[in-house]
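Have a close read of the entry that follows and walk me through the local backbone shapes. See right below:
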Amino acid sequence: MRRAPLAIFLVLLALGPFVLPEFHVTLLNYIALYALVALGLVLLTGVAGLTSFGQAAFVGLGAYASAWLSTTAALPGWLSWSGGSPWVGLVLGLVLTAVVAWMLGALTLRLSGHYLPLGTIAWGISLYFLFGNLDFLGGHTGITGIPSLHLAGFEIRGSRAFHFPIWLTLLAAMAFTRNLLDSREGRAIRALKGGATMAEAMGVDTARAKMAAFLVAALFAAVSGWLYAHMQRFINPNPFGLNLGIEYLFMAVVGGAVSVWGALLGAGLITILKQWLQDLLPAIFGASGNFEVIVFGIMMVLLLQRAPDGLWPLLMRWVPGAGGGRGRARPAVPQGEPLPRRQAPAHGSDLLVLSKVTKRYGGLVANHDMSFTVRAGEVMALIGPNGAGKSTLFDGISGANPISEGEIRFLGRRIDRLDAREIARLGMSRTFQHVRLLPAMSVLENVALGAHLRGSRGVIAAGLRLERAEERRLLAEAARQIERVGLGASMFEPAGSLALGQQRIVEIARALAADPCLLLLDEPAAGLRYREKQALAELLGKLRSESIGILLVEHDMDFVMGLADRVVVMEFGEKIAEGLPEEVQKDAAVLEAYLGGVAA
């Protein structure tokens, strides 16, 4: 039943060139070409959270590369063998776009906030003027006489002939994107919007994930440009300027910037509405002009207020079963062979050694001369009043916020100059003081993100579904850890729908999915009820028996003193006591500083 609308759409699409007038077939082709670019923006902007106004320039790279190759009489020697084939032009356009996108991405993806979109505007304008000022590209006049395509002896010429290649390309790109998002690499890209700190702590190379999304979006745009050039058989710089870049982003936002099908909905709606308004508004105002831009501006403001996720999610509410409501059956628990596990360290061996660790923020000293050791198979509790510097120390140990002075060794290796993902790869995993989950993703997917480092298949394999065996094993591992922490009934629920205490348990399951030998738990019992705390203490006790070391920050003293093997007490960034729980509770300095002297 759920596939019926898709089947009807595909049938109507296939009948289109046989029953529709030439104008409407051409309009359908433009919708598909625009949707291909908007699809890249769904991945880049909607999913990864990286706003780009320059995608039209990548359309131009794909179009100009093939147009130049197929119309130049005297090709360079290294291309003379191609005979000006448009298919070689496609490869040339993709390679050129990938190289340019990689260089531009290396520069602009380091930017954040409003600087990133400003950077994309800058290189989008630069490439537009480059197209118009190079004589061998025809300047602002453009390139004419671009040949049509030939495939298996048949000529593809005109809107009706191009209909199927264009739409098949779009549908293939949509399938590739859906496959990519439903994979290990896709989870890494989706994690970018949840914050780089969390993603890096799970072992995600965030710079690589950003570049992957950027390159895929650029290549989709280049393919659109190649198809456009050979369908039109003429190009000039006008379709590749900043105004079109803004329009592509508008299409993605209107349709639904986090929905694959939203790209098609947005492209169709804006293209048809633009055509209609260009005919209607000049007649109303009695003058020619781009009056439709005014309507689009008002439409964007209203949409961002009323439907910030776009129109596709609203439309899906009317499709039975599409919203994942009560009518849908619970998915089967993933099954797969267990993933390889790292060798457990010897019980009692030193896992983590801190020596005179200091962290400064200008004149403020958050941590000063912190030194202690965490051993395999023990629970070390780090306690102290609010503002004592405990979470800052956690960030320094895990690589999220490097220390200023001192030395940190993990498994005998110095790690205080390594980044978070390298430390995670060595076998350290953590949770956060303020829960950092991806609320729209299921509990299963959130926990599977913790197993990111235990997979290896890349973007191409994910898009072509060649990594399904690995993906099953990763999801099965995530399911096992969810069952282990007692949240099996919530496995397929959105993580954001759980209570705060349950979300903290999900973070522990995510950390366990990484197969760590050291766990850093930042206030794991906060928000838990009494029975939930008992279950957590039982779980941590079991992990201790498996030679996993645990460094724990917690304010619940009953929980800490009943679980910890040793306790370190901090005040104002310094260690004031260390020892067995019963010793620390009797320490005069602790009673005075931490308990305010009341117990004395």
